Here is the input.
Amino acid sequence: MNNPNEFRPPVPPFMLETAIEKVRKAEDGWNSRDPARVALAYTADSRWRNRSEFLQGRPAIVAFLTRKWQRELEYRLIKEIWAFTDDRIAVRFAYEWHDQNDAWFRSYGNENWLFDETGLMRERHASINDVPIQLGDRKFLWDCSGPRPKDHPGLSDLNL
Here is the structure.
């Protein structure tokens, strides 16, 4: 199970401000494109559904993310809160990336998250669709070596 020293604030029960903070921290983590770092936000036995793939546990998460970011190059993600309760958060998101042939895509999706009392995510359910885009249609234009800048527009600002 989880190491009792693991603690990932903010923790449930969520309020609007803490749920928004949790979403932004998740976005920043994923934008690092560091599978081992990202996996630490999930319980040791976390369960995922990502598209049609089902995973359980951090080693499976690390392997999945490693494959993902080998294929989805120059990945840039924006998440936005949709709804929340005490220990659950729903988000919508979009990310842009290109494949090895320099074909660009914007992937749109929704996620449902369930957290434990330490703020680690126990469950993640993601539904995602990929849409080809032209290079000139890209909207996520920050340097992909780090998180989205605080002044970069979010999904609603971009009408996505």
In short: The chain has a mean pLDDT of 96.
